[in-house]
Amino acid sequence: MSRFETLIFTIEDGLATITLNQPDKLNAISTKMKAEMLTAVREAGAPGSGVRALMITGAGRGFCAGADLSEGGVGGTTGDPGANLVDSYHPVFLELAHLDMPVITAVNGVAAGAGMSLALTADIVIAARSAFFLQAFVNIGLVPDAGSTYLLPRLVGEARAKAMMMLGERIPAEQAADWGLIYQVVDDAALTETATTMAQRLAKGPTRALSHIRHLVAASAGNGYESQLQAEALAQRAAGRTDDSREGVQAFLEKRPAAFTGT
Ligand code: T3D
Fold first, then answer.
1. What residue owns the CA closest to ligand 1's atom 19?
2. Is the entire prediction scored with pTM above 0.85?
């Protein structure tokens, strides 16, 4: 029997997969789901877990419909949405942001509210053609949260970000890809295989370099050019000392595929 009620968590060949599993509510984020996500993400990121990539997807026809509004409205147990965010959303989203491995989201259906924020926490977002993205917050009189006001303008620019946030309209996956909001759209039937193949490839990649890449790009949003050059140099020093860097160069010289170990 699974340890989790609201999600399915698997680890196979270095790839951890979290499948949000409350399909009747389009995988809306309940209090229980937040706690279980935190546990799963921590387990994936724990030293010695052997995990080298994380994929997040949803069961059923939705990816994630944002906060579970059937738990008595917003605000969780305190009735204060601000406290609820700080206490139970931020730990999950920060844990994801701090992971030293690549993260993929396979968006199988609607990604709304904090569910859209969750989709965008990934390094690579792949969506099914029938999926759509919705800044649902304004439709219930709230402001975007869980990182949407940070991530969305950086991905699509302020004009499109503010229109999405203020109009609360559905943006189809194809349009999201055209805007640069996500990386790729695939036919619904191909989503799982496409995303899993990509995630498995990342799980066999030079993990430390991949980790530096995600943290460098995240840091670039707050750095000036000169600081970012410095950050690159520090990261390159660390990456250049890894077994995977040595193996990558050796494999190139020997004209064979590199066998990265994540060390
Ligand atoms: O304290 C705090 O919580 C602050 C944090 C806030 C973060 C947020 O995410 S705020 C935004 C919360 N999310 C929403 O407002 C989205 C609400 N849902 C929708 O707008 C629509 O359901 C969708 C556009 C996502 C999908 O529409 P549609 O027509 O495809 O499906 P539906 O029929 O509306 O929903 C299907 C079922 O899922 C339905 O249940 P039923 O009638 O079959 O028993 C519906 O009630 C349920 N569902 C959908 N979204 C949620 C939900 N149940 C609970 N919470 C939801 N967010």
1. 65
2. yes
